[in-house]
Amino acid sequence: MNLIPFLSGSPRVFVLTGLLLVGIASAAQAQLSPEDVVNIEQVGQVVIHPQATHVAFILSIPRQPDEDIGGNYSELRVIDLETWDVSHLVTKPSSASSLSWIPGTNRIAFRMVDREHHDRPQVYSIDVIGGDLIKHTSAPEGVMAYSFSSDPSVLAYTMRSPWPEEVQRSREQGFDMQVSGENERHVRLWVQEGDDARPVTSDDMTVWDFEWSPDNHRLAVRMTFGTGLDDEMMFSEIRVVSARDGSDDLLAESQGKVGHMAWSPDGSRFAFLAAKAINDPLPQRIYITEVGNYIATDITPLGYEGTPEWLQWKDNGTLRFVAVEGTRTALREISASGGEARRLAGGDLEIFRSASFADNGRTFAAAVNRRDHPPEVYMGSAATSELTRITHHNPFLQDRKLGRQTTIEWLGPDGMLIEGVLTYPVGYEEGQAYPLAILPHGGPEGVSIDGWNTRPLYPAQVLASEGYVVLKPNYRGSGGRGSWFTMANHRDLGGKEFEDVIRGIDHLAYQGLVDPHKVGISGTSYGGYFSAWAGTRHSDRFAAAITFAGLSNWISFMGTTDIPHEMSITHWDLWWFENEGLTWDRSPVAHLRNARTPILVAHGLADDRVHPEQSIQLYQFLRLNDIPSSLVMYPRQPHGLVERAHRLDFMERVIDWFDRYVK
């Protein structure tokens, strides 16, 4: 292989050319370990060239123990679909993100920080044929998101407004107080023609998403008056903005959460994903509006049990979308006037959450995972429904023995059908009752999918290798089955939704698969709430619990989270002060007097979503009630774990805690 730098003096941007290699499994297979999990490389964004000549993708590369502390690197690689050569265009220690092909060219564009020239993310591109690197932007505060118009000399991007000069001077003198509502830095949309960039949205609005119209004269822009995530989730507007002078008007009415959006090819219609109502936890309905009419029509098929997550126009009369359907995913096609949604691909073992189509409308690329491997690059055909794997990372996984995995069903307390993803222990023997590990997803509108199911905070196959049956339940309130199911836990958090989990345990125990006296539970965020709830209110059913970034006190949580409206409106469907008794009763810390389950409590110290005080107070109260517990706080970690050492540490603690108290 040859390593050829694109730019003299810049060791961060390379082309590394080689052939795609398919690994061969060895005869002996070891068990998946925490060390294996932190070493897994995963494909992220995938984009196909409009002429289907190349596929570009991001590969997440874990840091090694001898490297600086930080998150994974994001390398940019491009596959030539004729020769199958792979070019490594951006390699560690640099990282690339936000890939797009510049229209009418062979250039792949991306965001990157090149610290030799700029300390903020800018837009760059590389010609995959010629290899020259171009820097397109010089945004003082860095580019947050960007999009080229069909004219490659014109692009739009978002940038957070800088501090006013007088405020910046005061901050440099130590006057950096954070005062609510003062000196808010909005995110503005800029349009750049050549080297000239100008803002096209006002300095009192924050832009979250935008899409060029086909004629390049306008952009659909989703924006809010506030700057916080709560505003983005609950109170955004979709407006049409002139690329020339910034004049704007309402484009489409919506309420609550809004997701992916797209113009029709002729620019006369606009489609987007949005909530059914303001209290719908997900933007899972398909809407279309006639441009200039404002009124949006819901064309989601009647009775459709799925959660669309991505959409695109096939032509002026047809839409395509990718949706989660139960524990699977599928690509479907629907008329713009509504009706049946015909499946084009998916619905089986291949799991994908979006697709990138070539101009021929048939060929697409996607990041696909299955039960036996993390996301890889696949090529697909909308004409034949075929999906073909074309990258093979993590060859060591072929030497690891995984537990058998399947989707199961059972009935909730009121007869509602509940699904979950079940993983059998490695070396499972029929007739033996095994210890059970419950791994509830977060949200609660998250969903567990029957694909690759192992990551540091949810180490399913690691626990299977340790002799546990692992269940990831999709309790009521989960995504993947439509608005009715996601809204089925309203005003009853911790109620029937948790009884769904209890019934799942009973179902497995009745089958003789698990020992009902040897049950542990570990979850993150809302899954962490479930774990704390299990170890307190339902202590008689659980031998051990592990909570990461979990809620423990609903009232104090509402006073410290960055999403009080989202949690209250879309999940509780009421404010805590409208029913203080219920809110307190559903708090794990309200049920410590009768609790005896050992609870491991863990949290990231940089978490804005669930404040670390939720874990601190839970641990404090557990200690005061002489309940076995341990508190682990991870510096620098947000609402999750991003650093190698912390990921490894947490998985080892999960195994140790369960082995001590469950087995």
What can you see in these coordinates?
The chain is 16% helix and 36% strand. The chain has 663 residues and is an alpha+beta fold. It folds into 2 domains: 3-174 and 184-396, Neuraminidase (6 Propeller); 402-661, Alpha/Beta hydrolase fold, catalytic domain (Rossmann fold), CATH 3.40.50. An 8-stranded mixed beta sheet has the order 33-34-38-35-39-40-41-42, sandwiched between helices. The protein is globular. Residues 1-19 and 21-27 have low confidence and may be disordered.
Summary of the model, kept short:
The protein has 663 residues and is α+β, with helices and mostly antiparallel strands.
Topology summary:
Elements: E1 3-5, E2 14-19, E3 30-31, H1 34-38, E4 42-48, E5 54-61, E6 73-80, E7 85-90, E8 96-101, E9 107-112, E10 122-127, E11 133-135, E12 145-148, E13 154-160, H2 165-172, E14 187-193, E15 196-199, E16 206-212, E17 218-224, H3 229-234, E18 237-242, E19 248-252, E20 258-263, E21 269-274, E22 285-290, E23 296-298, E24 307-315, E25 318-325, E26 328-335, E27 342-346, E28 356-357, E29 363-370, E30 373-381, E31 387-389, E32 400-401, E33 405-411, E34 417-423, E35 434-438, E36 454-455, E37 458-459, H4 460-465, E38 469-474, H5 483-486, H6 496-510, E39 514-524, H7 526-536, E40 544-548, H8 554-560, H9 564-572, H10 580-585, E41 599-604, H11 613-624, E42 629-634, H12 644-661
